[in-house]
Structures are given as structure tokens and as C-alpha cells.
Specification:
This protein is α+β, with helices and mostly antiparallel strands. The protein folds into four domains: 85 residues, no CATH class; 78 residues; 164 residues, no CATH class; 98 residues, Immunoglobulin-like (Sandwich). 19% of the residues lie in helices and 45% in strands. Strands 1, 2, 4, 7, 10, 12, 13 and 14 form an eight-stranded mixed sheet that branches. Strands 11-15-9-8-18-19 form a six-stranded mixed sheet, with no helix packed on it. The longest helix is centred in the N-terminal third of the chain and has 43 residues.
Amino acid sequence: MVETKLTAAAVYRGGCVVRRSGRVFLQKGTQTVRIGGLTAGIDESTLRLSVPAGVSGSNVQVEHPTHDEQREALKELTAKIAAVQSRIQSREKIAALWEANADFSQKESLSIDEMAAYLERLPERLEALNGEITALREEKAALDKELSEAKKKAALPYVTAELSTQEAGEYPLEISCREQQAFWNPVYEIHADSEKDSLDLRLRAKIFQRSGEDWNDVKLTLFSGNPSVSGTIPEMDPVHLRFYEPPVYKNRAAGGARLGGMMKAARADDMMLEECEATEEAPAMVMNAVYAGSGTASKGETMTEYALSGSWDIRDGQEIICDIKTDALPCRYHAVAVPKLSDEAYLAAEVATSLLEDLQDTPAAVYLKGAFAGSVVLEPDMTRENYDLSLGVDETVKVKREQKKKYTSNVLLKGQKKTEYEYEITVSSRKDREISVTVSDQLPISDEKTIVIEPLELSGAEREEEKGFLRWTFKLAPGETKTVRLAWTVAWPKDKRTEEV
């Protein structure tokens, strides 16, 4: 059996490809070689054998040892354990005899001097025997552990191949194959200081392997993709549009009660508004042992490759963290508020989206001036020019959105109903320096020609008419408060009912 050693691993987000190296002595001509070192989790269909020039190979197969082969591999070790166990039992019997012979009640022929001499030797002899028994038990425990590992190894698959050469000698060989039991996940850290004009985006890798063997002195390369994910191009099914037909209730009493309730609700509210607020709790940061190291990134056809410097040791079942790279990104710090959805203001760093093209959607730990400030989720929209990278809630900026008016009236000549809305948004700063503030809100968008929306007051907001988004950008001096007003009307046929979706 030619033994191989794991020398390199290409780790993906799901699974890895390992490379094992070994050396084999070949006679001139063709011979069948058995190559070991594989683990139980390999994907046999991905196995590749590489040999140097001057050697040719064929009929490469993955074999699994039979029960007879496994017993033969363990034969010598099993015999050693049996021999040690026999010696333990022998010493235990001798110790038991020494203790039994100390009973002189049935031995009247012994003199007092002989009994005294025996009792004087007894402790020393028992101590020596117990010491031998203890040492033998420790030897057996070590052999039992070795046998347990040997059983696992004896059950592992191996490779058979026919190798041919015209010159006898020792030759190197390599085996590569895919394994399922290793993967990595990106871990991001944002190191920011709002008094500067840049931030550090640090990418780290959390690597885990449970292949059944320890990785020692292994060269690691990380890939951003996942070969386990299907690469099949999706196909669309036809989409049909039909007129909506309200459900018909067979139970007239129940249906009438339900319909009556709906009519009462419609009369009570001329305009039904439905607002949903989605919240996502950021996962808590888990601290792990930090291993020094860094990597160089390069672009592949479909994914990014990170080659880690140096060699790495990862025990079976161990999870480690290593550094990959740190990018200094130019940015603009500002306070961001979306008061329609949240009463909080957020410190954000506006970054050019083109600088984040390698970013994996993942939580990131935020450090402000070196202090841990919480976790955020990084999900940049690559279709936009800039991305606001959230750095957490800014408690020194207060935001309030207050409804000042909601009045519905009938427009008799046009057969319409009209509702007028007015909101007041107040932002105040408790910082000791001037800050930039960005406030976002929105106007509804009409999907019907007969629903007419007219802005009355936007307080100079930038308007994205297609989506209805509004944005105010301004400066706040220390202790300053600024108020903006937002007002609009919605008119629709009086025999209809509108809803927000």
C-alpha cells in the first residue's frame, strides 16, 4: 500500500477538493499499485490520479477493503493486545496467590520466623506486581486506542491503478478528489471612524473540516462559489393574467355577516391603508480563536479565489478563523433616517457600489474607533451607484415623524373622493460637530389612471417619481433641529375603494 499525505485543499462554501501526494517504487514494466490515504467522505466520481512523465497509468479504480482484508490488517495489533491482556491476568493471579498465602490458619507446619519473613516480603511483592499490572493496563489502553484508529483506517477506501514505466525507480504521484465534509463562510468586520473619510472592510474566513483526519501542514485555497449548487439554467413557465373573482361563500349567514363587516369597515374608512414593517434581527457575534494569516485574491471564470499564505493545521472537527484581506474604502459618513419605518437614525458610510462587487451577503461586525458596536447585514444592490453601509443606530440623532392632517372630502362635480395628507418630520442633532443627514420618505404610486396623486409640499426633496421615493439631504450644526413638511392628495372615483399594496 502506497501511503499518501494531504498537501493542499481547495475549500468552497460547500465541500472541498483535496490533493494528496505520495511516492511509489516501480519496477520496469506494468504493475498494479494500491494507493491509500483516502477518507470515507470522498466523491469517488471526482477522483483523479496524476503521475510524472515517464510513467503511464490506466484502470484507476476506487476499492473498498473486504472483511478479510480488514481482519488481516488488524491481525498483528490484535495479537499484541491479547498478549498484553494475558500478562495482566497472569500478574493478577500471582498477586491473588500472594495475598491468599498470607492466611496461615491451615499451615501449622510453618514456624513463626517463616510466617514473619513472608509477611515482611508481602507488601513489597504486591507493590511490584500492582506496578506491573498498572503499566500493562496503560500499555493495553494505548493499544486499544491504536486499534480503534486502525479499524477506521482499515475500513477506508483505497485506489488501485496499473502503472507502467520503462525504467525502475521511485516516482511521485498525486491524487485529487472532492470531499463533502469541509467548507468555509465569510466573516466581515467593518472598522470605521466618522471623523475620517474612509473605512476598513476586513474579510475573514471561518473554515471547518470534519473529514475524519487531521489536516497538518496543508496549503489552503478558498473559493467564493459552491459547486454543490445546481448550475442548470432555469426555464420560465408561461404567466397568465385573469380577472379577479371574489370568493363565493356557500354559508349565507356567515357570508352575510362577513360582507356586512367589510361594508362597515369601508364606510368607516374612506381609504384603507395597509402598512407592513419587516424587521430582521442580526445574529449575535461569536468569538473564536484567531489564527494569523492572509490571502491574495484573484478572479476566476465564475468565482473569486483566495490563496492563503503559509501552511495550515486544522484538526478533525475543528473550526478556525483566518484573515483574508483588508480593503480601505473611501466613503462619506452621514446619518440616515427612514422615519416612516423607524424612529431611529443610523450612522452610515456611503460607499461606491463598484468597490463592493466581491461582497458576500452576510452579517458583519461593526467596530467604531475600535469599540464593538454591533452587527449589520451587508446586502448591496449592485444596480445602484452608491450603497449606504449601515454602522448601527446613532443615538445622538433624534427623528420624529408626525401626521398633521388626514382629511377626506367629496368632489361633487368630478364624482370623486379626495384625501389630503400632511406629515412633519423633525431631525435634531446632539453631536459636538456638524453632520450630514439624509432623510427618506415616499409618496404612493398610482396603478390606475383614475387614482390621481398630487404633491402639495415636498420641502425641496429629491424625488424618484417612478418609485415614489423622496430624499432630503442637509447639514446639521451641533444642537441644531430641522423640520421638513410633506403633503399630498389622493383623488379617486367615489364608488371605488383603494388600498395600499
